[in-house]
Amino acid sequence: MTRSKMRAAFGAGAILTAGALALTGCGGGSFDDGGGAASDGELTSSDDAISVLIASSGEAEATAVEDAVAAWSAESGVEASVEIASDLNQQLAQGFAAGSPPDLFYLSPDALAGYADNGSLRAYGDELSNAGDFYAPLVENFTYEDEFYCAPKDFSTLALIINADLWAAAGLTEDDVPTTWEELSTVSQTLTTDGVTGLAFGPEVQRLGAFMAQAGGGLVTDGAATANSPENVEALEYVKTNLEGGNFAYATDIGAGWGGEAFGLGSAAMVIEGNWIEGAMRNDYPDVNYLVAQLPEGPGGPGTLQFTNCWGMAADSPNQQAALELVEYLTASEQQLAFSEAFGIMPSLETTADAWREANPDLAAFIDGAEYAQFLPTQADAAAVITDFNAQLESLAESDPTTILDSVQGNLEAVVG
Amino acid sequence: MTATVTTPRVGSRNSGIRRGEAAAGWVFVLPVILILGLFLLIPVLMALWVSFSDWSGRGSPLSGTVNFVGLENYAAVTTGGGLAERDFGISLRNIAWYVLLVVPLQTALSLFLAVLVNRAVLRGRGFFRTAFYFPSVTSSVAITILWLFLFSQTGVVNAVLAWIGISGPNWFQEPSGIVHNALAGVGITTGPEALTQTDVLGVSLWEWLAGPSVALSAFILMAVFTTSGTFMLLFIAALQNVGVELGEASMMDGANGWQRFWHITLPQLRPTIFTVVTLGLIGGWQVFDQIYTGTEGGPAKTTVTPAYLSYEAAFTRQEWGEGSAIAFLLFLIIIFFTLIQRWALRERGVSKRRAARYEVKGGRS
């Protein structure tokens, strides 16, 4: 390349770069200004259509949400559309970066802190007319730095799912449903036969955390990391002993993708799963008879975990007023019961619990757990700690619970602060 | 012809019939420059900026609220001492084993296949060429799903292993490293303290030496299976350019088939080997699709690759700076290894010792 050609090439590159910087720079600046103002003051209001982005568990959920949003749209006169995400995290991130996020979207508690920190979210919880009707732990789950960010759209808890036929075949009766850890060990041993494991669950804290709760432990207590507490050690020791005994097993170790699959295939007589298993059993394994019981109590009393998502609202949304009304519509009692019927969730409103219990008497154990359910830490970056914890739990049978929990404690302290 | 031919003076752009050619040239390449600049150069530069900034993923990374933080993001993944460093260490451990096994295996296999299907005497050459090439044109997502089935607990691979009395592992759920497994086979289950107590990037040397996990090994087999076809094609093309004269001459000298391949054919394939190894290295270090669609890094993080970690850090954990920093570290690693292998495969002069072998003995007297 001659000197002049080189200069020309550099010149062209520089002009291009400068042009692009100017373009993107301007765009970014104006979005930031708009967003910053909106998240503190009044809700924005305009005639803009509302876009909703959801991650659907399947056809039933997608249709139910689409129908509900369409019904609200017809009633309110505000245009609204639902998009089903193929990768919710990625699509949300793209929307926020481009300054054109969906107005409303499914938001998981572990993503809340990250998006709240960078100002992507509008904290609207306290402005909901039904703000006081939600279960308190759910509100706490979506409260970050003392602000109630978003309305929990529904929730699930873990319970013990028992294969009724295997149960009867092993000579067990309704009185044998385990209520303590000892009984759980005993019945799972009774149910373990060649090719069937007594109790199975996924190799993750999203299941084993229930044992930690039953032992009286938890990952974060009163804002401090308590991962290596004696209670948690005891819980993992208990699980480890039973894994070694062969009466407990990880679903993935007995050739299933998750607990529901192990249960449906009959390779596990009992599993610890949430109420989503009801839909899976109905669709994939309609011939399996099962019953649902509350998880047994541990030395620390009853314990389970709850899982939930909320309706996140974008700080950049130009029509937050209408979005808020849509959230109120979607989380109203009747609508949540309709969702429940369509795809098996539990309503996030405490006031709707009795109606749900009446409609789903066989699944009452799930909603009974709501009173004492714990949830996993939601601090920014806690998700990475959980992922690391899960990676270590996979080899729990060969590892020392204290060592695992000590390393989790170290990681968690860095996050909780 | 005696008349002098007038050649246009080199470098005189502003006169004669060639006037304005340079401008026309620029106009013709402008679309490419624009497209490459807009979709390649600028995004890369922006990513580079993000890796030095505290951009949180909202609005433009070039807006006034984003600050320059120097090497902070790079430090977090290389010296931070926390999870980010350990994850990066684990991902490098995984990918190093992956590349170490995939590149030689796929190069050797593709060369072997090429030699095989290049033989004129082989019946149904076309069929075999197509068969070996087929996996390369299939989507990696489809192959990954196929692999998940083949290597499941009750899959075909384990069924075949069962015929010969081996109880196969639950491939994609097995986090133990194959080197560790082999050592455990001879009774060594814990490493010497020198290895277990020394950490590099938050991962002990003993863990670095664990080898690819069983799950990653399944991915290694898959990579070899899917890429050998493409590289076989390159080798076939190169083999067809190898002249027969040298081979015939060496036959006269009494070289057998293996000697002809090793001393005549292979040296002539050097440029192709360079291409194949380079492409293999780059592709190997950047593995993403298979992990994203297959295991998402599990079991126990043993299939986390830097490319996947970069994606995960940015899109799931909102650590955009860290994600870009990992991407650029990966870029540096790839450049480094490409240079190394360019150096290793350079053309060398024949050494005196070697040359002596070919000298005619007793020629001078």
Automatic annotation (TrEMBL), chain A:
InterPro entries: SBP
Signal peptide as annotated in the record: 1-22
Keyword Signal: yes
Alphabetical UniProt keywords: Signal, Transport
Gene3D superfamilies tied to this protein: Periplasmic binding protein-like II (3.40.190.10)
Pfam family, one: SBP_bac_8
Family membership: Belongs to the bacterial solute-binding protein 1 family.
Name of the protein: Extracellular solute-binding protein
From TrEMBL, chain B:
InterPro entries per record: ABC_transporter_permease, MetI-like, MetI-like_sf
Residues passing through the membrane, by range: 23-52, 95-118, 130-150, 214-239, 269-288, 325-345
Keywords: Cell membrane, Membrane, Transmembrane, Transmembrane helix, Transport
Domain ABC transmembrane type-1 residues, every copy: 92-341
Annotated membrane topology: Multi-pass membrane protein
Main localisation: membrane
Compartment(s) where it occurs, according to its Swiss-Prot or TrEMBL record: Cell membrane
Protein family membership: Belongs to the binding-protein-dependent transport system permease family.
Protein name: Sugar ABC transporter permease
Species in which this protein is naturally found: Microbacterium invictum
